[in-house]
């Protein structure tokens, strides 16, 4: 039997990495083996991956030596950063650079870098349409990832533009909220523009499809989404799935940014970018192409059908 090529997966116990680990494990006759990176191989999530047959290794993207060891001998890596754990673009840049340098040191033949747009290419800092944050950014958690593309540019990299997770309606505070009169509504700053979205697990499955294509997508930017729906369409899908009315409230970015939760300004600017550059943003993430990478790609309604019991209805 030919030796399998090892794909090292950063964030293997998290949302994006989990999908890729499961896709590799679900294809035991395929060409790839999986090495799951975690800061702690003894957590229940990490142990579960080992029980499923993944090689589980300890590494932190804040620790270059641990990353170099974890990438050594691998064929490829899935690289991702965790902005919402620290809210620091500087730390995100360092984490991306650490991964790129470790990939280079290990001589990896293919890297997928989970990135997003540097929105300053569309809205320069002196453009007042979107407020500048921290003196340097328009959408900090996008701009840092886009800026970090430079670290991966010299490597055999596929730049993967991800989309808003459906899962944010479960775990990121985006789900339907109950008004005092008991009616449910979702709030998004998208006006009547479609929002590209995807199941977090489908990101990993698309990444698996990219690896399956060999060198075809090296040096290319690939955008993915599973659905592109307006706020009204999202609310209608919720109404059907939950069998009760769910309304869509358009909350303008100017209001959203004053909501006061951590990252509200960053997210308000993100939604404004997606609203105001909507044609570009949607076209960069074609659904039909995403399905060629991942035939299991779920529409929002399909995902809701499987996950509606997990939606917290506050
Ligand atoms: N939410 C969205 O809609 C969305 C859309 C597009 C892009 N993104 C981006 O996705 C990124 C997050 O990816 P995700 O959702 O897959 O993350 P996640 O589900 O929060 O997973 C985080 C995982 O990363 C690991 N981790 C955290 N810090 C680490 C470190 N220093 N070194 C190594 N591993 C570490 C943790 O594993 P251990 O505890 O096992 O180490 C954890 O399981 C963010 O940068 C965000 O901006 C999010």
Task: Explain what this protein looks like in three dimensions.
The chain is α/β, with parallel strands linked by helices and 314 residues long. 39% of the residues lie in helices and 18% in strands. It contains 14 helices and 13 strands. The chain has helices spanning 15-25, 44-52, 64-71, 89-105, 140-147, 149-152, 168-171, 200-212, 231-242, 253-256, 264-276, 278-283, 287-293, 300-307, and strands at residues 5-9, 32-38, 55-58, 76-79, 110-115, 157-161, 164-165, 177-178, 184-188, 195-198, 221-223, 227-229, 246-250. A 7-stranded parallel sheet has the order 3-2-1-4-5-6-11, sandwiched between helices. Strands 7-10-12 form a 3-stranded mixed sheet. Strand 4 (76-79), helix 4 and strand 5 (110-115) form a beta-alpha-beta unit. Helix 8 (200-212) crosses helix 13 (287-293) and helix 9 runs parallel beside helix 14. The protein is globular, with a radius of gyration of 19 Å. The protein starts with a strand and ends in a 7-residue tail after the last helix. The model has no long low-confidence stretch (mean pLDDT 97). The structure holds NADP nicotinamide-adenine-dinucleotide phosphate (NAP). The site of NADP nicotinamide-adenine-dinucleotide phosphate has 26 residues, from helix 1 and strand 7.
């Amino acid at each position: 039997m030919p030796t399998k090529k090892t794909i090292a997966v950063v964030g293997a116990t998290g949302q994006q990495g989990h999908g890729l680990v499961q896709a590799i494990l679900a294809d035991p006759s395929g060409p790839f083996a999986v090495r799951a990176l975690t800061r702690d191989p003894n957590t229940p999530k990490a142990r579960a991956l080992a029980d499923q047959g993944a090689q589980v290794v300890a590494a932190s993207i804040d620790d270059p030596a641990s990353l170099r060891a974890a990438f050594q001998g691998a064929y490829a890596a899935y690289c991702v950063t965790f902005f919402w754990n620290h809210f620091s673009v500087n730390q995100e840049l360092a984490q991306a650079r650490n991964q790129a340098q470790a990939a280079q040191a290990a001589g990896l033949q293919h890297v997928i870098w989970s990135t997003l747009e540097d929105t300053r290419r569309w809205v320069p800092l002196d453009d007042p349409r979107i407020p500048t944050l921290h003196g340097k950014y328009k959408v900090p958690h996008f701009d840092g990832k886009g800026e970090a593309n430079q670290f991966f540019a010299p490597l055999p990299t596929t730049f993967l533009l991800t989309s808003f997770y459906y899962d944010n309606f479960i775990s990121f505070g985006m789900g339907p909220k109950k008004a005092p009169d008991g009616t449910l509504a979702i709030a998004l700053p998208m006006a009547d523009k479609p929002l590209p979205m995807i199941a977090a697990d489908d990101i990993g499955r698309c990444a698996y499809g990219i690896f399956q294509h060999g060198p075809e997508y090296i040096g290319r930017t690939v955008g993915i989404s599973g659905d592109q729906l307006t706020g009204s369409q999202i609310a209608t899908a919720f109404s059907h799935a939950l069998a009760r009315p769910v309304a869509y409230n358009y909350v303008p970015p100017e209001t959203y940014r004053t909501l006061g939760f951590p990252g509200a300004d960053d997210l308000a600017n993100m939604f404004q970018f997606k609203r105001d550059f909507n044609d570009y943003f949607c076209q960069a993430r074609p659904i039909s192409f995403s399905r060629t990478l991942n035939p299991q790609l779920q529409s929002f309604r399909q995902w809701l059908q499987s996950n509606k019991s997990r939606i917290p209805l506050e």
